[in-house]
Amino acid sequence: MSASNNPDLSIPIVERSGAVLMEIGRRVPAFAQGLHLQSTGQLDQARSVFLQLTERPELTAPALHQLGVIAAFQGDNGRAAGLFEHAMKLEPAEPLYYCSLGTVFERMGDLPRAVATMVNLAVMLQTQGKHDDAIPLYRRILQLSPLNYSAWVNMGTGLAWTNCSREAVVPLIIGVILFGRFLPEARELGDRLLADIGDRLPELTAALAVLPEGLPEGRLERLEEVLQTLDKALRTAGFIDATAASLTVALKLAPGNALARWNHALSCLARGDYAQGWADYEWRWVWDQFPEPRRMLGAPQWRGEELAGKRIYVWGEQGFGDILQFTPLAQILADRYGPDDVVLEVSAPLVRMLSAVLDRPGMRVISRPDNPHRFGVEEGFDYHIPLLSLPHFLSLRVPDLPLLPGWLQLPAEEIARGATLLPPAQPGKRRIGVVWAGRPQHSEDARRSLPLALLGSVLDAIPDAQWISLQVGNRAGDALAFRGRLHDMSGQLQDFIDTAAVIANLDHVVAVDTGVAHLAGSMGKPVSLLLAHSVDWRWEIGTTGSPWYPNHRIHRQSALGDWASVINSLRAEHAALTVQAVS
């Protein structure tokens, strides 16, 4: 029983299932003979062949399946179902048996069991990471059972995992609406989401117009987990203003859920609610998948105690950009609380640069140790604190920004050294640094980085620009395609002090959301920041400026993956700067 017997099941996993039988026939001549007899209508002879093959353990399940196909062809659907179920027990990971069982249940008019079988298959595929196979099955399930809650939310989850975030939002919200037919909190959330973003999702309105009345069918997953997936899809699709409502309900249902708290923190921070955002941000240490280890150091964590006469160890966490963005808080801590000694631990590539800028009596910069549960120096401390916990315990709010504008000023000798690294200046041209890709290890790097080729039109369109590549790592070689228009500096940039020394001699920086964007912003340089549609919390919602860096000009994707609009906006910005320079 293959897809050709049921046109409504023309979905990829079903279409491919017949290849399983042909492969067995290629290896086992007797099985091939049985398939030939079956295809030519010689069903009794085919049955005899497959009965004999059931005695061979490696062929029992596929032989039982073919016996079921013969029974179904002869109208004995009940016997066929039993044979398919027996085959499934022997080989529970073979999609072919689920497909045939679901089809025969459908022929029998037993839609609940047909749907349940297909849901089991789709969930199995999804668990294996085969979302592209599972999603068409969910669509087929919803044709048979449009109120099937599992199909809606699992299809949304699969779409979210395959980077179809906007498409994922629709089935996930429908899942919430179905759940709301017996849970008031979910009903209120569904109404809120429709009011907030319904006018931007006509596909959601169209789907709801044909959604039947009645209670949801099928197994009901835990709603708080669905809401976390919905939050991810909303943020990635650019509906970040709607995320807080879903996470608030998730936390009401499961107040101790660390991942929901963490996501709620990001949503609050993006909307400028720093009081709640920084408080919830502390839940990162409870979330078991947070990429940084929760360090067990030989001192209590500082929580706002007096520091006069004390020594405190501030340790950097997360990426280079995070450390650069929040380093001013270590200086503010020292100025506000007057400890005897502040030691700031950062990633090794940042040490030389930050030491040159920050080291003074009572403050020094050191490198992160190999053992995360030890201090980076053999000294005792009264307190320690993660760098990104300082905003909470220093009560940082949006009006406090920018923190210390232009705080990162290199010594004169480093600026002079940077000038020697650059190619000769071209008269009448602005020197503009370019970074188009971040670290590939970053979870969002595929979205935040862009092909250098897309910037080609900008390189050509700005006549008063001397373009300097600040890109390092495995994407630095992209600059070779623009030799003559883009000067590659990657060979001279060994760590951040080299990059900073070069930037000190530039007029402008164009960068995607990477550490260089924070570095240039911390130095007070003008920055054109190129942002994906799914924005990091620190760049807020829909703004063209940044409260953290007054000289940033933000260019955002107008839709997921739409770098063209970003490039057009960037070209317009620099064309205007060219006009200003001329006038």
UniProtKB/TrEMBL annotation:
Ranges for the TPR repeats: 61-94, 115-148
UniProt keyword list: TPR repeat
InterPro entries, per the entry: Glyco_trans_9, TPR-like_helical_dom_sf, TPR_rpt
A Pfam family matched in the record: Glyco_transf_9
SUPFAM superfamilies membership: TPR-like, UDP-Glycosyltransferase/glycogen phosphorylase
Residue ranges crossing the lipid bilayer per the database entry: none
Name of the protein in its database record: Tetratricopeptide repeat protein
Source organism: Rhodocista pekingensis
